[in-house]
Design a protein that fits this description.
By secondary structure, this protein is mostly helical. It contains 19 helices and two strands. Pfam families: Peptidase_M75.
Length: 433
């Protein structure tokens, strides 16, 4: 994410807020027929929203927090093993696998980046790219001595706070700081890598070695874990107590601003609440959630690189704007983003068929053509991204892509844009019928 992407998301959020709060009369539930049919629609919309919140959002954030917690423990174990001279490649491989698990759950949550992810800036805090290697080299070099964050015998909770608050470049935090430590050129790093000094050219003469990188990764993993706890806790008032305790220990609110649990607010629309109608809640799911990430994947995550690689870039585009370049998982990230949209529409987690209490089921009942358009958009997006995933990594395509490879990227972007159009049509129709 960069500043342009963040501002783009804010604009989409503002448009959705108008729909969610009943800004226009045609969005009010009681202005869509005033009949028994309308009452049934509102009941069904309320039921599917509850299913979405409980079985999709809550479930995903719980799994994300589980994986992030496990990642923190495994990075700590790697650090201790390196110090004891017992670090193994199997241990590194396991930590890399856990990182990818946590990463996948995060990407599969990006169809609902409204709420605490947006309001508290959690999304840019844990998922900003590209990582500044020169900046990270300077930061680590400045914090390795007796007065630095990673001084001998440092307290991990203090380090988590210091890294989170004193690091002025979010690109060093969260997933991409950890990715840099654990992966290079699409491969897991080795025991020898951690036993020596950092080999990236930007670190030459910095004195940064594998032990310092793992100190840093331990603190960053703790900060990532805490932010994933906050996501779960701010959405779900029944989140595990230990996670609530840790959120409060960081000095954070248990609730999303301005003082409500997002899951409760979405499933209890009423006057004075963030969402005032059942239709407004659906619009938030489709507009602030699904459309938001579809637009970002096509226009920003893929679009910036494609435009620069094909000579169509603007001053705001960058060829370096590549998500997950060290693990070579960019296309997987994009695929998982579309899975998040599918899960939101289906009311379940990666099932072949949608739940009877879902947006897809609702549309199939009341407007089968729109349901078909959405399904076609999902299928085409998955198909085109699968083609991309069979080839070279996105970071390689960015700098030496063939005409065929760039055309494959363009086709995936087109399919995702068509999915976004279908989402927009579905939202428009639901708000007016």
């Amino acid at each position: 994410m960069n500043k342009r992407t963040f501002n783009h998301r804010v604009a989409i959020m503002a448009m959705s807020l108008m729909a969610a709060t009943g800004f226009t009369a045609c969005s009010d539930d009681d202005n869509n027929g005033g009949s028994e049919v309308e009452a049934q629609k509102v009941k069904e919309m309320s039921t599917l929203t509850e299913k979405y919140v409980n079985d999709v959002v809550y479930y995903t954030y719980d799994k994300l927090a589980d994986a992030s917690e496990k990642l923190y423990d495994e990075v700590e174990a790697m650090r201790n093993s390196l110090a004891a001279g017992t670090l193994t490649q199997q241990q590194i491989d396991q930590t890399c696998a856990t990182f990818l698990e946590a990463r996948a759950w995060w990407e599969k949550s990006e169809a609902w980046l409204y709420g605490p992810a947006e309001n508290w800036g959690i999304d840019p805090h844990i998922d900003t790219w590209p990582l500044s290697r020169p900046g990270l080299a300077k930061f680590l070099s400045n914090n390795k001595d007796k007065d630095g964050i990673f001084r001998p015998g440092f307290d991990i909770n203090e380090a988590i706070e210091d890294v989170s608050e004193n690091n002025n470049e979010d690109s060093w935090l969260g997933f991409h700081g950890l990715e840099f430590v654990l992966f290079r050129d699409g491969a897991h790093r080795t025991v020898a890598d951690f036993q020596g000094e950092e080999s990236a050219s930007e670190f030459a003469g910095s004195g940064v070695d594998g032990a310092l990188e793992l100190d840093f990764a331990w603190a960053v993993a703790g900060d990532l874990r805490d932010h994933t706890y906050r996501l779960e806790v701010n959405w779900n008032e029944n989140a595990p107590q230990a996670r609530k305790d840790r959120v409060q220990a960081r000095g954070w609110s248990l609730m999303d601003e301005p003082g409500y649990y997002t899951g409760y607010a979405l499933t209890h629309p009423a006057s004075g609440m963030p969402y005032t109608s059942a239709r407004g809640a659906i619009s938030t799911i489709l507009n602030s959630g699904c459309m938001n990430i579809a637009q970002e994947v096509a226009d920003q995550k893929m679009g910036q690189v494609w435009r620069t690689a094909t000579g169509q870039g603007t001053a705001e585009d960058s060829q370096d704007y590549i998500e997950s370049p060290y693990s070579h998982k960019s296309f997987q990230d994009f695929y998982d983003n579309i899975i998040s949209i599918k899960n939101a529409l289906y009311g379940n987690i990666e099932q072949p068929n949608y739940d009877e209490r879902s947006i897809m089921s609702y549309l199939h009942k009341y407007n089968p053509e729109l349901a078909s358009n959405l399904q076609q958009g999902l299928d085409a997006s998955f198909d085109k991204l699968n083609v991309c995933m069979q080839g070279r990594a996105f970071v390689e395509v960015a700098y030496s892509g063939t005409a065929e490879e760039l055309d494959n990227v363009a086709k995936a972007m087109e399919a995702i844009n068509q999915l976004n159009e279908a989402l927009n049509e579905a939202d428009y129709w639901i708000q007016r019928n």
